[in-house]
């Protein structure tokens, strides 16, 4: 079943079931009609990725989907699946699964953290800058233009799909994808919303081997095999998934070109949602994906954020997640947060994190403060590029688990950006954003408002030149080391 009229699947004042397909967990939660979480209506299934010495990082597809279905069972058992009038999905971008002739999985789910790849020889006539401007992506292992040739080198696939496509197929019986999810594959022509001919040629695949792209107004319905399992969901419209970055922006309150949303979860990103029509020319250092049929999201991502915070608090055995007693911008230690490498177009490999200026006077709190400051300065690099792109200093909203975990980090980001920030009070920004995209909602941050403190701003400003010099040295050293 599918409907493509603009009004299909509106919440109609009822409740919304949101499925959030993350890398470390999958969650099902119930939202009110305004996309606020219903207290207690949350079920979570933890995901354990399998890692290997050769760069492997895989997710078990069967375990993932069965875990998600188990979350729905839990909500059902607790009486939370009544009065549901819409089902929405937020999903990790970039994942891929190779499929056989019958559509069965030949491989586990390959998420963005997997580093295995093969080289591409496209000749001197290939213009990667024009390719990037058209697709919003680079020829990097994150994207299907590199993933598919690598998968062909290890198996004999007949087709390919992403994790959200296969979840949607399990629920509805239809294997389709959204323009948002397709944009994260690096094979989408951003302007027309269809697969890009050159990207398909680079990947060595035909469009019919990939899931068809459905319009934003498309809805599916729950397969009849689940009618007895979740009777309250029968006939409820299921909306196409939204990529988690786009969903997080909208869910934080950053849904137009006046506002940059800074999301700090396991990794971090700074992004701006804007109309796809007459979009500003994309700089080489930023990516661009789609939110829906009318909007794009442009930004920069960073591999070290909440994962860095969690690692350091564990390694140092800190009782508090805060660098207690350390003033923002005051630490003599400079941390270059390349522990997990960098995202494209930079090519710094994982294991390149550096601490400069250590002395016997430094405490665990100094190291934590330096790490959070380094991550803040990295995010600020992306924010400044977006300021330039959109021709003005952007308003900023902060959201995500890392933001929620540390008041010191919120203040540090505000001082580093040297502008006021608003904090999103809702931690489930992806689920909230998926509901907002599907149903046309415009949520507000709803949290605290922070003003930059002049003394903190000055200390960070004085710190910045030293940080940039040492960052350049770290990039050079990591490049030289990778060539040994």
UniProtKB/TrEMBL annotation:
Q: Does the keyword Aminoacyl-tRNA synthetase apply?
A: no
Which Pfam families does the UniProt record give? FGGY_C, FGGY_N
Keyword flag Cell division = no
Q: Which InterPro entries match?
A: ATPase_NBD, Carb_kinase_FGGY, FGGY_C, FGGY_Carb_Kinase, FGGY_N
Q: Which residues form a coiled coil?
A: none
Q: Which UniProt keywords apply?
A: Kinase, Transferase
Sequence ranges assigned to domain Carbohydrate kinase FGGY C-terminal in this UniProt record: 260-438
Residue ranges of the Carbohydrate kinase FGGY N-terminal domain?
Answer: 16-251
Q: Which family does it belong to?
A: Belongs to the FGGY kinase family.
Q: What is this protein called?
A: Gluconokinase
Can you name the source organism? Kribbella ginsengisoli
């Amino acid at each position: 079943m599918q409907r493509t009229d603009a009004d299909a699947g509106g919440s109609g004042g009822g409740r919304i079931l949101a499925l959030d397909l993350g890398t470390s967990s999958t969650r099902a939660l119930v939202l009110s009609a305004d996309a606020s979480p219903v207290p207690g209506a949350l079920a979570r299934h933890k995901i354990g990725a399998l890692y290997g010495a050769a760069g492997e990082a895989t997710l078990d597809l069967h375990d993932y989907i069965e875990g998600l279905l188990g979350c729905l069972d839990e909500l059902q058992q607790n009486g939370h699946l009544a009065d549901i009038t819409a089902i929405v999905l937020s999903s990790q971008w970039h994942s891929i699964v190779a499929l056989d002739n019958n559509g069965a999985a030949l491989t586990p789910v390959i998420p963005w953290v997997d580093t295995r790849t093969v080289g591409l020889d496209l000749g001197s006539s290939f213009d990667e800058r024009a390719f990037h401007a058209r697709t919003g992506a680079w020829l990097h292992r994150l994207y299907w233009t590199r993933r598919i040739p690598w998968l062909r080198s290890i198996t004999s696939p007949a087709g390919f799909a992403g994790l959200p496509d296969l979840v949607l197929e399990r629920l509805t019986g239809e294997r389709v994808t959204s323009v948002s999810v397709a944009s994260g594959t690096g094979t989408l022509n951003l302007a027309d919303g269809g697969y890009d001919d050159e990207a398909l040629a680079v990947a060595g695949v035909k469009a019919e081997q990939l899931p068809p792209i459905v319009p934003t107004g498309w809805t599916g319905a729950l397969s009849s095999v689940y009618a007895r399992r979740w009777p309250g969901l029968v006939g409820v419209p299921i909306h196409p998934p939204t990529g988690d970055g786009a969903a997080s922006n909208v869910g934080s309150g950053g849904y137009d070109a006046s506002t940059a949303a800074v999301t700090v979860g396991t990794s971090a990103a700074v992004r701006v949602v804007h109309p796809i029509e007459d979009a500003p020319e994309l700089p080489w250092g930023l990516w661009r994906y789609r939110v829906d049929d009318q909007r794009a999201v442009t930004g920069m991502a960073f591999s070290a954020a909440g994962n860095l915070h969690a690692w350091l608090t564990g390694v140092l055995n800190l009782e508090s997640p805060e660098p207690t007693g350390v003033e923002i911008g005051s630490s003599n230690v400079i941390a270059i947060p390349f522990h997990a490498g960098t995202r494209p177009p930079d090519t710094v490999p994982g294991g390149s994190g550096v601490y400069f200026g250590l002395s016997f006077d430094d405490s665990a709190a100094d190291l934590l403060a330096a790490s959070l400051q380094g991550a803040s300065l990295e995010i600020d690099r992306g924010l400044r590029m977006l300021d330039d792109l959109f021709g003005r200093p952007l308003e900023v909203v902060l959201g995500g688990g890392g933001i929620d975990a540390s008041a010191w980090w919120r203040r540090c980001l505000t001082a580093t950006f040297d502008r006021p920030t608003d904090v999103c009070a809702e931690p489930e920004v992806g689920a909230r954003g998926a509901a907002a995209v599907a149903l046309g909602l415009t949520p507000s941050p709803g949290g605290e408002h922070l003003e930059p403190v002049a003394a903190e701003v000055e200390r960070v400003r004085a710190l910045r030149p030293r940080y940039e010099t040492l960052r350049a040295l770290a990039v050079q050293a990591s490049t030289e080391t990778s060539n040994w």
